[in-house]
Amino acid sequence: MSSDALGHTLLPKRIALPVFASDALSSVAYAPDEILLTLSIAGVTSYLLSPWIGLAVAVVLLTVVASYRQTVHAYPSGGGDYEVATTNLGRNAGISVASALLVDYVMTVAVSISQAAQYLSAIVPSVNGYEAAIAVGAIVLLTLMNLRGVRESGAFFAVPVYLFMFAMGLMAVWGTVQYFTGSLTLAESAGFELVAEPGFEQGLVGIGGAMLLARAFSSGCAALTGVEAISNGVPAFKKPKSRNAATTLLLLGLISVTMIAAILFLARATGVVFAENPHEQMTDGGRALPEGYEQHPVIGQIADAVFHHTPVLFYFVTAVTGLILVLAANTAFNGFPVLGSILARDGLLPRQLHTRGDRLAFSNGIIALAAAAIALVIIFDASVTRLIQLYIVGVFISFTMSQLGMVRHWTRALRTEVDARVRSRMVRSRAVNAFGLGLTGVVLVIVLVTKFTRGAWITLVLMAILFVAMRGIAKHYDRVRAELELDDVSAARALPSRVQAVVLISRVHKPTMRAIAYARATRPSSLEAITVGVDPEDVERLRADWVDKEIPIPLTVLDSPYREITRPVLDYVKSLRSTSPRDLVVVYVPEYVVGHWWEQILHNQSALRLKSRLLFTPGVVVASVPWQLDSASDGADESRWDEPVVQWRTGGPQE
Amino acid sequence: MSSDALGHTLLPKRIALPVFASDALSSVAYAPDEILLTLSIAGVTSYLLSPWIGLAVAVVLLTVVASYRQTVHAYPSGGGDYEVATTNLGRNAGISVASALLVDYVMTVAVSISQAAQYLSAIVPSVNGYEAAIAVGAIVLLTLMNLRGVRESGAFFAVPVYLFMFAMGLMAVWGTVQYFTGSLTLAESAGFELVAEPGFEQGLVGIGGAMLLARAFSSGCAALTGVEAISNGVPAFKKPKSRNAATTLLLLGLISVTMIAAILFLARATGVVFAENPHEQMTDGGRALPEGYEQHPVIGQIADAVFHHTPVLFYFVTAVTGLILVLAANTAFNGFPVLGSILARDGLLPRQLHTRGDRLAFSNGIIALAAAAIALVIIFDASVTRLIQLYIVGVFISFTMSQLGMVRHWTRALRTEVDARVRSRMVRSRAVNAFGLGLTGVVLVIVLVTKFTRGAWITLVLMAILFVAMRGIAKHYDRVRAELELDDVSAARALPSRVQAVVLISRVHKPTMRAIAYARATRPSSLEAITVGVDPEDVERLRADWVDKEIPIPLTVLDSPYREITRPVLDYVKSLRSTSPRDLVVVYVPEYVVGHWWEQILHNQSALRLKSRLLFTPGVVVASVPWQLDSASDGADESRWDEPVVQWRTGGPQE
Asked: Where are the stretches annotated Disordered (chains A, B) (predicted)?
């Protein structure tokens, strides 16, 4: 997509919603599962508390939505949490948020794809037990698709997301109707009893009970992942951008909350029993579970119960849920390189990542994301429950810091704003963000307390590594910038007094002659050919050729007592420089251009090493004179022959 | 070692013997074992035939020694089998022998180190079962030593080789005396019975018996490995080189034969019983062997019996035997890169391997050898018996082809020689080589027949792969040479009509100014700076700087609708070329020189990609203008400041 073209693809709300919603909506495919699974530890009576936990999650979700609606108005540029934190809290805060976001992208891929594999196994029972392998395969597939640069249209997102909403709505309505008419079938797990773990025989009591409740709540907060996506995408909305984005965000929040509520309700109505290790934590009337029992995700179990008589709808619900999870992972593949590009622009990552058109840098980002996600999937055996522990902490770190930044933002803005109406709106916004800060801060503490030893520490370690790396890169670029600063213009404009040209040769053949001809064409003050004498016979042959072909420049043979190439040349060039330090030495190196990588191994090795060493010598320019071997011309030059567009020229007089 | 220095380290025979003998002599540490082990299959009665097999091996060994004595006289240059085959039988024969030799070096390391691990386990019983791990560790250690470039003196070889000869001699004499005085203790395995395998209940009878005998013989021929080493080392001998080398070779042969004879004799005298799988093939008076029984190498068992009352001597014999095996492996580490260098000189391997002073190429050779040997040790679990099957076929291929080459050599020489005395000597030499050819050819056939399915096919496959690769490389170099041949000297001397210089810039800083100053110093016909406009703000800043700093060359901004760097520059340079095809375009690229590899990731990526693409464009020279960052000067330029030695200058008048 060209820079100009970007302006023409602004999204109306009905397309923007699915484009940005897949990540957030897909969370409902695992958040309710995690709530029930955590509560299971205290036995089935604790399930009575699941609506309250759902309510708490909904409150947090709507608060976060309200907070981000302020962000969307204040930062229509789409910088998101990273921009908010950097602008208002300084560079280190920005780097912290960036670290959290980078880790989150990896977690999004790992969690979504792992859960998608669970849904696949609900439809295709024969893949049971191979979830990790399937997840890895899916990530590889997504990676290849994204490397190929498949550009998704709005419809690519719209169809599955609306299908998912439709499926959830259908299931909710149909299920509710059945429930009230008393015709709702029970879930496959409804008959099982939960064996409370030691310490929870009395249900949720005491500090242990409170902690477990807190854990269930923080696991449920997985529903919030992806909510911030819209704040990064404001520039893509149709005008009025901020207002449309805010509306879409609100819509997204309401849909999410409705879905969670519906799922938790139907889970109770169908009697779903869900545990981390069903065969250890459940019994079937006191006896062990049937050996082949495979626990399916909650939505799958509900769909199975609700659509008991129309299995095609069960397959439909399960399939679109899996699809939406894959789509969520795909958004991370889009978002990760974009964030990388922004971080590179700010000097926190290698600068070449900034060039968006740069396919290689883009590809490296995609591959890095995929590799990290695959590693996590393998390490945690595609267990969503274990991966979730790592996920939420990063999300809430960026939520909290972003809200803190917003509070700071409004406070600053209020310092200069005089219009009373605007001021009152700002005060209101600040209140919303302050409430959001308080709530997300509390959730962050709960998440840290309940999840630290269960895996959140891994996230913090990864974030710390990224933080240190980005700080180091920034410091390096700063140092280099200071070093390169043009302090003395007139000194920089001084020219070398003379140009001494040296052509490096080994034999007399076409590339040599070309290098000599090119060097002569530049009319240097002095010009000589040099060769390193390793084999006396070769030298003698070269000397004879030189005289025979009447080559019009002198040939200098450098002695190489240690049969080396590089050092004699380096020493000779340095000696030229030391006799006339104000001269410029241009070393012409004939170089073969080959068509195949393996040919590269057969050529140029000495030249390459020599070139890289020569560059360390001050006052030396290394000029590569290429010779294109036949193999280099077969398809190797695949460039289109567009006329380049010269924007404009500025300039002093040509000397 | 400098080229000149090489001349001063010629070896007297007493030092040359140990330097070249470790490989050949170390074979006696496994050849007798393999003979007994193969005979064991037919039960203990077949041991009666071991002296006859020893005799056959001795005959072959002495024949090969006699043959190589002719080679040493005819080819004092030390090219060895590869040179003999190439010169007399053509390039393909040479490549075949080279393939065999390369594989043999790998096998030498794998077999010697695996057997050394067996000897270690005879002294240190606690390492039993970890032989493969120990062998891998030892190869890694040898690799590191050789990468560090530890240069061995003659004494490095002399001491352990003479100690080994002394140890063997002592053991032989002492053991023989004890035998005739009736005081010789029996070996630890002497009490065990051998269970003949199905088909050999009657001992060595029929075709099966003959085949087994042939197999035992061809395994015993492992004693011949390394005999050819002296023929590669003739130039290192003191004058008269050929005669001294021939004498040393004869000495080596006699010592080898004596040792084998002694070991086979003492093995019978002490009643050693030796099998591939002792716990399956042996019984202890009809019952299974003691569970902890670990079978030790034959020399170890003999030493244990002979020095029963002086265990320190047992340790001494076993330790020096292990040491000599490690030394043999080390000679492969020296020989492999040298052969690689010779093959590279002849265009059969990448040319940079030829530069002997080139540490990197040398290191690559060492690492390749080590990696291949480690792979074999792991695949074959350090089992010498299984590795031997792969070893001998390569050795006898080179023996046979070398003898064939020698016969051809003498036949050719006889065509032109007229001196009757010289002729008669040549006829005699030819007879020796012809006999050698016949015998080694027969052995080769026996080896192929008895070992093909047992592993020799692997060697042949590896050889075939190397053969095809070397042929391909040679063909490539030939093709390139023809392509580069200077056919039209006057056309090659034509100069480009004008030089258009282009300086690639992104910002105005010190490296930019240096690049502009250098470009201006070369006084091109036209000079402009170009930049790619990706970010309008950056372009505006650059333009303001340009005017502000009064930079005296025009600045051209190239439009980049796809936010790319490389293509706009390529297209612009091509358009310059297409408007004036006879001009030379010199592109000056400012480049950062950094001190750490990770800094390289942070810089130059766009420049590097651009440079490599520009080289595909005809008529373009890419000039790198380096800027040494501070980090590049800390120790990165570690070159000594020697004055270079200019050998001489040839030359036409300077235009």
From this structure: 631-655
